[in-house]
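Retro notes, structure queue

What went well: the backlog is down to a handful. What didn't: a couple of records were mislabeled last round, so from now on we paste the full input next to the output in the thread. Example, using BTBD8 BACK domain-containing protein from Plectus sambesii:
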Amino acid sequence: YFGRIWKGRSFLHLNHRWQNLCFQYLVDNLNSETVIDVLLGCEKLQVTLPRSKASSASEAVAALVSDLLDSAMSFLASQLDQVIASQSFSNQGKGLALNLSLLEDVLPSVVHTVSADLGCRTLMRLYELLILLTEFEHDKANRQAPSTGVYSIETLIDEWNERFINLVRRLYELCDTHLLHHAASVVKCDGWNLLTPAMQQRIQNRMRMRFL
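Corresponding output:
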């Protein structure tokens, strides 16, 4: 919602103190359920603000948007596992999944930066989500199509989008590769015990191969 307000003339000409208070409120309330919406809002503002006629005012707001984007990205990089497990992330994969482009651009690069511990926790969140998505695909394959051959709007909205399923698979593969690359650190981190025996075995095998 802040994206609609911040691009408006009233906010552009608001006292800087009040603008900063609005900015700080969003930063203070960043959590796993809000960070994706903040990222989406920032993306839209970066497109719309330069078109404003009030250039000096829009530049000041653009600076706030840039700072807010940095804060959101920092939160995402430190709490990736919680974001993956959030209802907000799951909601992006339902129906037409119109906002997936941003997540497809941002999340893969974030995966490459996570620590060993966060990587383990993120991998397990992705693993759990993949189980859910696999069950959905299995049910969908066995589901009988309506006699009209056309699914209702409600059904389409509730269904997972194929692009989202592919994104989760890609993130899982990237996270898995990241952990294999940092195997020596992974086996010593707190998140190691969260991994399945099969995951642990693969990582240990990778370590052994390096010493051969």
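Agreed that this is the format going forward. Reviewer comment attached to the example: The chain has two domains: 2-78, 98-211.
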